[in-house]
Amino acid sequence: MRRQVRLGIVVAAAVCIVGLSLSACVGNGPTVTAVPTETAVAPVEGDLDGNGQLSEREKEILESKRPREVTLPDGSVVAVDPSQPLPAPVVQSITDQFNSLAAQFNGDGLHDEEILGQMYQLVDQKQTEIGRGVVMVFSFLGYWCTAASSAKSPIQGELDQASVISQAQAWASARDFELIVIG
Q1: Smallest Cα–Cα separation from 164: which of 125, 133, 124, 135?
Q2: How far apart are CA 135 and CA 169, in angstroms?
Q3: Closest by CA position to 100, among listed 119, 81, 113
Q4: What pTM was computed for the model?
Q5: Nearest 5°: CA angle at 37, between 32 and 39?
Q6: Were 132 and a residue from 32, 63, 82, 165 both cysteine, which residue would form a disulfide, CB within 3.0 to 4.6 Å?
């Protein structure tokens, strides 16, 4: 019985001490006000990481997506929106320039290799002009091949035109490239 009384006194004392401690916290102490540490940043167009500023890479990406005007070899100017299919005059201009290079193939390995290099330079130049990648499907010495801007196309040359076009469509679509088939 004595043990129960002692236990009761200890519990009562503990409750009183905790109660007094808590009441001291609520009392007349200083008022604490939450101060925001960050201010809300208005969204910035093109800010991919959400830090409210554009990095050089984010600026490049934003610039590449803006509509632009392309001057064709005949001097005419055509509006191009990189998010839309290329206008027919731009496709025709690229096709004509590419065909003029392809016409120079002659079966001489070194010469043809140089022409292929010029074709890759052309599609890279067109990517800069139009704001999106280009993949060309063309015939070379009886094989259907591809040339893509800023990337090496993994598509191997084949005799089957439909197969190469199908592979190129899938490859171009996955990268938002414009597909141009010659021939």
Answers
A1: 135
A2: 9
A3: 119
A4: 0.67
A5: 125
A6: 82
